[in-house]
Amino acid sequence: MLNVGKWRKTKEKARRGGMNAAGFRGADGSRNLCWYSAIYRLFHIFVVIRLGISACCGSWVYAFLFESVFLVVAYVLVKREGDDMTVVEPQLKPVLKWAGGKKQLLDRLEERMPHSYRRYYEPFIGGAALLLDVQPKSAVINDVNAQLLNVYRQLRADSEAVIDVLRDYDGVSCDKAMYLEMRQKYNEKIASATFDVECAALTIWINKHCFNGLYRVNSKGLFNVPYNNKINGLSMDENNLRGVGAFLRNNDVEIREGDFEVACEDVQSGDFVYFDSPYVPISKTASFTDYTKDGFTYEDHCRLAQLYRKLDALGAKVMLSNHNVDLVYELYDGFHIEPVSVRRAINRDASKRVGKEVIITNYQE
């Protein structure tokens, strides 16, 4: 079982203080373990006392007895601290701006996550804000958007290859003509189902240069979001891309493509499932569900609610976020529903980017 209770608190302290539990942070963002500092402190004590015994007693017998006792005590102390060892992962952020992204809701989601669980499931991965923040050791991520999943697959396979292509793209100032040319190139990749390194780089680049970072396709599945009219601006954070690739590569993260029900077929009791599905619309113009050409319908929301109840009966720990609307309360009646305020990045009117959402859980911890 993955215990994240103490880990969360230490991680938050590390964020505020800029260091991990040992007081060190690798230049490459690598992990550092808290028992490094314990060994250093014990060694310092050993040297001081050992020199003191030699100076005062002048006998190797007393020194030998001290060394023996010290080693036993050191072993016990280091083992105890090692058992409570915390690992502070490099801070990662979403590679893509995505409709419904959870960057603004992370703290509230983390507070409501179960203290322990087996495997992490996220059937609507989107920008992966929660996944990259929690960084579980074992996870299943899923989506129906092939271009999105290709980004994660290519970063896992070779993040440097993606970075190299993006460096070339960022070496040229982006104007409207260039954006339209790159969008045409991207749509050719989509039409031919060519999911390679270049397609992943184009997805990232276009996401940074399109209007409001919106991913939207037409009835043919082709990307149709206009230019954002911003010439300057890099499309990537190289270190973050490397970090995301390393996380996906070094952990048991399975990437699936398909319907959310299929993605959850092997969920077991004790697993944690987070649903960040396309939201129930507040109005006819307020919903961004066409990131696939098929959209997400009322019937899909009903299917999702049925799956939620099925997983609850199975013994899984389930959390879901959605708009604070009557239909959501009807679909998830009987579960713990908590309203929260959140600031949304995707809305053409900045004054309307603060809205009410709900976090729904089948547990309370």
Automatic annotation (TrEMBL):
E.C. number(s) listed in UniProt: 2.1.1.72
Annotated GO biological process: DNA restriction-modification system; methylation; mismatch repair
Record bears the keyword Methyltransferase: yes
InterPro entries registered for this protein in UniProt: Ade_MeTrfase_dom_2, MeTrfase_D12, SAM-dependent_MTases_sf
GO molecular function: S-adenosyl-L-methionine binding; sequence-specific DNA binding; site-specific DNA-methyltransferase (adenine-specific) activity
Catalysed reactions listed for this entry: a 2'-deoxyadenosine in DNA + S-adenosyl-L-methionine = an N(6)-methyl-2'-deoxyadenosine in DNA + S-adenosyl-L-homocysteine + H(+)
Domain of life (superkingdom): Bacteria
Listed transmembrane segments: 33-53
Keywords tagged on the record: Membrane, Methyltransferase, S-adenosyl-L-methionine, Transferase, Transmembrane, Transmembrane helix
UniProt entry tagged with the keyword S-adenosyl-L-methionine: yes
PANTHER family, alphabetized: DNA ADENINE METHYLASE (PTHR30481:SF3)
Family membership: Belongs to the N(4)/N(6)-methyltransferase family.
Protein name as catalogued: site-specific DNA-methyltransferase (adenine-specific)
The organism's taxonomic lineage, starting at the top: Bacteria, Bacillati, Actinomycetota, Actinomycetes, Bifidobacteriales
